[in-house]
Write a structure and sequence with these properties.
Length: about 325
């Protein structure tokens, strides 16, 4: 490819691309990177780049701003989402233009899986209760459990779910996982039993801890409400590292206040950042973290390498990796 390919690049993980990262992208071939702000603004001398841009490297860009950028970039052919979730990318404007969308599937699997294992260990060894006893200056030894005795349900057996199961395997934990097409994952891991999405209630009822790792789509929004929480064991914990809108937060508060389940860990919420006056902060047996499960010292490098590899495919006219089915939402 001899022509110059213009790449619009928004801030990634809250920060604009550094000159060094831009240089790495442009070293791939005849490529010019044009920084664009989170509100869709470009420098005056780069305004003309919108009319010729073919690629958008998208970080935390709101859906409304994305549509505005798409409307001003008639030659846009490919959007790469720096996140794995594409619920804010699959907009009507993007679908109408049939723009190819790729995502960062696999980039965050390891840190998120490590976060989940950390929380499962904390739950099994009763760390929240031990910390509460420390605050109360009370000496009361508590009996914990070993991960090998736990059954962990994973709702959404994609790259993150598979990595969680992989890290749990040496502990001997039993894993029950849901997947839209369970037959595709059969035999992947000996410690995993796969179920169809329609068997969710069975997985909930048999699990000591349930991890939500499914994408947010029209079908999965509100997936966990009062009926699902009541289907869980009273001793079970719920962990959400996917999207806040998967859970009916009011129903979860009732479940924790009334003892339907033992506890929950939330790293994602319906509205972020979580406001200081949110009732979730005072909900019993709820561990809150500020959407940090994905973060590590390696995700930026891993994510950029994925984009650069795909950019090479694009310039060579080859199929792209991690292409998203916009109808399915992942």
């Amino acid at each position: 490819m001899n022509r110059e390919v213009v790449v619009l690049a928004t801030p990634i993980f809250g920060a604009p691309l550094t000159p060094e990262l831009i240089e790495q992208i442009q070293a791939v071939g005849p490529v010019r990177v044009v920084p664009i702000s989170r509100d869709g603004l470009v420098h005056a001398d780069a305004e003309m780049a919108l009319s010729s841009a073919e690629i958008l490297l998208r970080g935390g860009l709101p859906a409304s701003v994305l549509d505005h950028v798409v409307s001003r970039a008639p030659k846009l052919r490919w959007i790469h989402s720096a996140s794995a979730g594409v619920d804010r990318v699959a907009t009507p404007a993007v679908r109408a233009r049939e723009i190819t969308v790729t995502n960062a599937r696999g980039v965050f699997s390891r840190p998120i899986a490590e976060y989940v294992v950390m929380m499962l260990l904390a739950i099994a060894r009763r760390l929240p209760q031990l910390l509460e006893l420390q605050r109360e200056r009370t000496w009361q030894p508590l009996r914990g459990r070993e991960l090998g005795s736990l059954t962990v349900g994973i709702v959404g057996y994609g790259s993150i779910g598979a990595e969680i199961a992989h890290l749990l395997a040496p502990f001997g934990a039993t894993v029950l996982a849901t997947r839209r097409r369970p037959e595709r994952g059969a035999g992947e891991a000996p410690n995993v039993r796969l179920f169809g999405d329609e068997e969710l209630e069975q997985v909930l009822g048999e699990s000591d801890a349930v991890v939500l790792a499914t994408p947010l789509t029209e079908q999965t929004a509100g997936l966990i409400g009062a009926p699902q929480l009541q289907a869980m064991r009273e001793s079970a914990w719920l962990i959400n590292i996917a999207r806040g809108r998967l859970i009916d937060e009011a129903a979860l508060r009732r479940a924790l206040e009334n003892g339907w389940i033992a506890g929950a860990v939330l790293d994602v919420f319906n509205d972020e950042p979580l406001q200081p006056d949110s009732p979730l902060y005072s909900t019993p047996n709820l561990v809150i973290t500020p959407h940090t499960s994905w973060s590590s010292d390696r995700v930026t490098e891993r994510g950029l390498n994925l984009f650069i590899d795909n950019l090479r495919h694009y310039l060579a006219g080859e199929p792209l990796e991690n292409v998203v089915d916009l109808e399915a939402g992942y």
